Amino acid sequence: MSPQEDPMVTHYMARFESALRRYGVPEAQEIALDVRSHIAEALGYGRPLDSVMSTLGQPDALARAYAVELLMHPPKDARVDAVMRFLRILALVIAGSFVSLIVATVLGAFGLSFLLAAIILLMGGVLEAFGVQLAHVHTGGLPPWAVIALSPVAGVVAWFFFWLLWLYVRAAARAVRRALPSSGIAKPAA
Amino acid sequence: MPEPNASDWTSQLRRGVLELCVLRVLRDDASYGYEIVTRLAALGPLAAGENTLYPLLRRLKAEHFLETYSVDSPAGPPRLYYRLTPRGRERLSSLQTEWTDMARAVERCLNDGAPA
After folding, report:
1. Phi-psi region at B82: left, alpha or beta (left = phi > 0; alpha = psi -120 to 50)
2. For a FRET experiment, which of A93, B46, B48, B111 has its CA 20 to 30 Å from that of B12?
C-alpha cells in the first residue's frame, strides 16, 4: 500500500472533497489533485505522514479557505479588463489632446511673450542708457533704469508660466503612465 | 474584545504580500505547489501555510495571472505546475511598483514619524 493510499489520507481527501462540494468551490477535482500531489511530494521528501496532514489543517478548514479565496474574490474577466483599459486610454488621448493643446498653447505663449518682453526691456533700457533709441520702441517716457528694472519682473512672470507648463506636463505624463499597460519589466527598487 | 497580537498582524501583512511573492517566485520558472511552499518557507516570515498558499494559487489561476499544466511525477499523482501568464507578468510589475512605493513610505515614516 502506497503512503497516499493510507486510510488517513483517503479519509482526509473524502472529507475534503465533500466539503469543497458543499461550499460550491469550482474546479474541485483539480483542487483535490493539487492537495493529493502535495501530500505525495511531501512524503517523497521524507516528511512523516502525521506532520504532512497536520500542516494541511482540518479538511473542512482547508475547503473553507478555498471557498473564501475563490468565492469571496470572484475573478475579474480579463477581456472586460482589457476593453476597459482600452477605453480609458482612448478617453485619455481624446480629452488629453484637447486640453493639452489649449493649456500648452496658452501657457507657452504667455511664457514666451514675457520672456521676450524681459529681453527687450533689458536691451532697450541698456541701449537707452547709452543714448541709443531703438526704432519702434517707445518706453513711454520711463527713465532707462526703470525700463531695466521691469525686465526681471517680466522674467519672473515668464518663469511662472513655464513652471505651470512643467507641472502640467508632469501630471499628464503621470496620467499616461498610469493608463498604459506596464511593459512587464519590473521597476527596479531604488 | 481581545487585543490583536503581533502574530495576527504578521499574518495579515503576509497575506497582503504573499501574492506578490508567489508571482515573483514564478517569474523565471514554472513550479509546483510543494516547491513553492518550501521556497517561501525558507524565507522565514514569508512562510505561509499550505491552507493559505494553495487557495491563493487557485485564485491567481482563476484570475488568469497563472496557468497550469501537469507533468508525471515519480512521487505519485501528476505534478501540477504553475507558470505566469502575460497578464500575471503585468500584475507582478504593478504590484512590485506598489510595494516599492509603500516600503519607501513606511521607511520614511519610521525614520521621521511623517513630519507635517
Report:
1. beta
2. B111
**Chain B interface, best mutation among A9, A38, A53, A80, by max B CB count within 10 A:** A38
B96 contacts B17 by C-beta, under 8 angstroms: no
Interface predicted TM-score (ipTM): 0.81
**From B69, which residue of chain A is nearest by alpha-carbon distance?**
A30
Give me the tens of pLDDT residue by residue for chain B, a chain 116 residues long: 556 666 778 877 887 889 999 999 999 999 998 899 888 888 877 777 888 899 999 999 999 999 999 888 776 788 889 999 999 999 999 999 999 999 999 998 998 886 66
Residues 6+ apart with CB under 8 A from B49: A55, A57
pTM: 0.59
